[in-house]
Design goal:
Strand content: 15-25%
Number of helices: 22
Structural class: alpha/beta
Helix content: 25-40%
Shape: globular
Oligomer: single chain
Largest sheet: 8 strands, mixed
């Protein structure tokens, strides 16, 4: 087996605060930039402005940021008068592949696609319109940011890829380790041709992530700081826990688990809604070295049974019911059915700890199995609030998280402790420009990776105050999110593009009736955000003053991979921008050859990062085949990606969401973005269907803005919009009117169901139990021939 090893070394501290002149002006260089355009098959910019005028692209110049005592207005004027806006010439005279985007950042961005003029949008001073393709942070924001300039990012990024051992060791040293790792910080083999694929970070280091989340904060004097604000589904139901109180409750659950025989390495399945007891249970497992497997409390009994049979837990933690919106969901009934099914297949679970959620259902009406079922409130409070920590190796497993997929056995993604801890903490800190005074709210459920990394572990490792919301984001009306923002003075708001588009559809009035003045950073997660939704999120929700951290990452990566760092560089609406520290993204063609410059292809990553997953539970062969065999030597993300001439990365969706129309490979996200740019289109989802002439045709489900009637003229206008923005080859063959789209309760569109409806395979719709509104499927079927 061949592997590469990094040895600790190097100088400097990865999280060092850099001093820099606070104000810069932009000075033209004498020579134009030299950009690599070897890949010239992407003639049209996939994410250009939706303006339909034919214009000449602005001439590119190069600029260098130079310290100068300009005022903000002079800075803005200097920027706006140029056709390009600059970042830095960081004196990185390197041509190594992993620093390719660093070289591109030495040249000022020239904009995203053909636009009539290029304006600098300074946060808080101007709206982001269809013609404003670069959004800059204000000087005030940048001065106070953890990374106040592109130059500071470049310094840290360059070290993170040239000295990963030293870079990550310096950051890891800020956490509590019972004993440190050895000289070898990272050992890995990403090339399946050289033997088994494996990754190890901080091997031999002994730590505990629960201790670092809770005890470390209490010991540092933050015990009285609020850890969780909880908001119930119904207005008026709320609660809070300080770090000291949270630690006490975690210890009680941990002691209960130990008492019933759960030990280090044992699996615990958690099937809970967004109560504070969900992250409490996760932290309790981590405290005693147990491996938690959180299952989204929207999965069916069959899906839950599959996961139980795979990981064979000692205990299942659930609650009797939850009220989401106006609907009561009987979770305990689902667990009972799942445990019955798993028992038939030889996997019995002896204990089911059940939390009584009185706001949804009283215990008297809950079905019960004596000898197995235990009420949480009856036993957990009786245990001690002190629980000894189980110290674990950095490479010991922390959690399993199953990816559902549309067919086949779910994949149990396995994350380990040390590297995940260091990576989630660091990504949270920088991607959200986290400050100790921030109030942070991520709308994700802990049943998904976002809830693991950026509701629980990442924020608590930074000592943050986190808002947890039990209910639906549009209940009792579409203004609920902003009501919660104002109630808790939320400063960082992280959500999914699907929710953004849904709230767009409901109109601005539900947003503008609330203050939202506390907000300073917004975030997007889950799928590429189309530019029009980005602009609405920025202009309306953020009042044109909050940068948007549009993050690309996956369950498998553990944390952010490509994301804007607020304050560091200008954003382009819809672009994830540049890689995080230590991440080396590459775009390859079908043969696995890296493509330089402006291009489109398959997004891969070379070399490991601390947060990467280590295997698929019980199926390492599938792990290698799925992620490392398609392009040997790389981690294959499964996503398509474009890189523009400025080095910005644009995610185009899953490659299995690419439609091949008469030889043209068209990303569904690209067509969806074009459709949603139409002012009467609120949301769109595109799938491919068989076509007797073209091989595949484009089938678009379109949700209109409220009050807009269906019409053939509008159907033609939508098709024309796509033709104008992308090309005739991308015009949808069919527009299917959709009052709503089939989404999970977390907001994920179930494209599998859309494909079956589009191809009229109505007897193969499969499991729809996780949908927020199963009735939407019948509505779509009824409109199939309209």
């Amino acid at each position: 087996m061949i592997s590469s090893s990094f040895t600790a070394g190097g100088v400097g501290v990865g999280l060092r605060t850099h001093d820099s002149p606070p104000v810069t002006y932009i000075k033209p260089l004498l020579t134009p930039p030299i950009l690599d355009h070897r890949c010239n098959n992407n003639k049209k910019s996939k994410f250009r402005s939706s303006t339909r005028r034919s214009v000449k692209a602005p001439q590119t110049q190069a600029f260098l940021l130079v310290p100068h005592p300009f005022s903000q207005s002079e800075h803005t004027a200097a920027a706006s008068s140029s056709s390009v806006l600059g970042m830095t010439n960081c004196s990185l005279n390197t041509t190594t592949n992993h620093l390719r985007h660093v070289e591109s950042m030495a040249v000022l961005p020239s904009g995203a696609g053909k636009i009539p003029r290029l304006n600098a949008v300074i946060l808080g001073e101007a709206l982001a319109s269809e013609e404003d393709d670069l959004v800059f942070p204000s000087d005030d924001f940048a001065r106070q940011a953890l990374l106040p300039s592109a130059q500071k990012y470049l310094e840290m990024y360059k070290r993170s890829v040239e000295d990963p051992a030293g870079f990550w060791s310096d950051i890891a040293s800020q956490f509590l380790w019972k004993s440190k790792w050895g000289d070898t910080v990272c050992s890995e083999n990403f090339d399946i041709r050289n033997g088994n694929v494996y990754v190890q970070w901080f091997k031999g280091g002994i730590t505990n992530i629960c201790y670092n989340c809770l005890d470390r904060n209490v010991d540092s004097g933050n015990g009285d700081k609020i850890a969780f604000h909880w908001e119930g589904n119904e207005r008026g139901f709320h609660d809070s826990l300080t770090y000291t109180q949270l630690l006490s409750q975690v210890c009680q659950v941990a002691n209960y688990l130990r008492d019933i025989g759960v030990k280090k390495g044992d699996a615990v399945v958690i099937y809970l809604p967004m109560l504070m007891e969900l992250p409490i249970a996760m932290l309790a497992c981590a405290r005693i070295g147990a491996v938690h497997s959180v299952v989204f409390a929207g999965f069916s009994a069959d899906s839950l049974a599959q996961r139980i049979m795979d990981c064979k837990p000692k205990v299942v933690l659930t609650c009797n019911a939850v009220k989401r919106g106006s609907k009561v969901i009987h979770l305990k009934d689902i667990v009972d059915a799942a445990l019955s099914e798993s028992a038939k297949n030889g996997i019995s679970v002896d204990a089911c700890l059940t939390y009584e959620n009185r706001s949804a259902m009283m215990r008297e009406t809950t079905k019960w199995q004596d000898g197995r079922d235990i009420w949480w409130q009856d036993v957990v409070p009786t245990y001690s609030t002190i629980c000894e920590v189980e110290w674990v190796d950095a490479e010991d497993p922390l959690f399993l998280l199953y990816t559902s997929g549309s067919t086949g056995k779910p994949k149990g993604v396995l994350h380990t402790t040390g590297g995940y801890m260091v990576y989630t903490a660091t990504t949270f800190k920088y991607a959200f420009d986290y400050k100790p005074s921030d109030i942070y709210w991520c709308t994700a459920d802990c049943g998904w990776i976002t809830g693991h990394s950026y509701v629980t572990y990442g924020p608590l490792l930074n000592g943050a105050t986190v808002v947890i919301y039990e209910g639906a984001p549009n209940y009792p009306d579409p203004g609920r999110c902003w009501d919660i923002v104002d109630k808790f003075k939320v400063t960082i708001f992280y959500t999914a593009p699907t929710l953004v588009r849904s709230l767009m559809r409901d109109g601005d009035a539900y947003v503008t009736r609330y203050s939202r003045k506390s907000l300073r950073v917004l975030g997007s997660v889950g799928e590429p955000i189309n530019p029009s939704a980005w602009r609405w999120f920025f202009n309306v929700v953020g009042d044109s003053r909050c940068p948007i951290s549009d993050t690309w990452w996956q369950t498998e990566t553990g944390g952010f991979m490509i994301a804007p760092l607020p304050g560091a560089w200008p954003q382009k609406p819809g672009s994830a921008t540049f890689p995080f520290f230590g991440v080396q993204p590459v775009i390859v063609d079908e043969k696995g050859v890296e493509i330089e410059g402006e291009c489109s292809g398959y997004l891969c990553v070379k070399s490991s990062w601390p947060g990467t997953f280590r295997t698929l539970y019980g199926d390492h062969e599938r792990y290698e085949t799925t992620y490392f065999k398609p392009f040997p030597g790389y981690y294959f993300s499964g996503d398509g990606c474009s890189r523009d001439k400025d080095g910005y990365y644009w995610l185009t969706g899953r490659v299995d969401d690419v439609i091949n129309v008469s030889g043209h490979r068209i990303g569904t996200a690209e067509v969806e973005s074009a459709l949603v740019s139409h002012p009467q289109c609120a949301e769109a989802a595109v799938v491919g269907v068989e076509h007797e002439v073209k091989g595949q045709g484009i089938y678009a489900f379109v949700t209109l803005v409220d009050g807009i009637p269906y019409s053939e003229e509008l159907r033609r206008n939508l098709i024309t919009t796509v033709r104008n923005q992308i090309g005739p080859f991308a015009a949808p063959d069919r527009i299917h009117w959709a009052p709503g789209l089939p989404k999970t309760r977390s907001g994920k569109i179930m494209r599998r169901i859309l494909r079956k409806i589009a191809s009229r395979q109505l007897d193969e719709l499969g499991d729809t139990s996780t949908l927020a509104d199963p009735g939407v499927v019948d509505q779509l079927i009824a409109l199939a021939d309209c």
